[in-house]
Design goal:
Blueprint lengths: L6 E7 L4 E7 L12 H11 L14 E5 L3 E6 L7 H20 L10 H24 L5
Parallel strand pairs: 2-4
Antiparallel strand pairs: 1-2, 3-4
Helix pairs in contact: 2-3
Length: 141
Amino acid sequence: MADRLQGQHIVPIELYDSYVAFVFGDVENIEELEIPQYAKDAAIEYLNDVEVDESKNPAKGFTLEIGEDDLVIYIPHFRFSESYSHGTLSHEIGHAVYIILRDRGLTLTDSSQEAYMYLGGFITEKIYRYILDMVENRTDD
């Protein structure tokens, strides 16, 4: 599993009328997402201007807030067999959770922490179902 993951997946967050779009691998994978064109264009424009050289930082990830309810997480070098990839994914999901709940007026406090943790767990479970399916069904050329 040394090859980096290539693909995209959307995790709908129906409770908050939002979604998190995940993109792994090439920036061009954003075009395959079923999200508004303005969100695709903004994400591609931003990401074309950032450094994603794996030799400089293999654990790089980005959480892009585009519009009110458009979140795109981009991880260019996700490798299932590398622990740093999972740490990066967890880190970026944390940003997404913060943005979604902040935009709904829910700050992190003792009384709101369960909402933050629940949403983080929900997003993590959904994206790992997708990742595990990709890894299990991968055919190496």
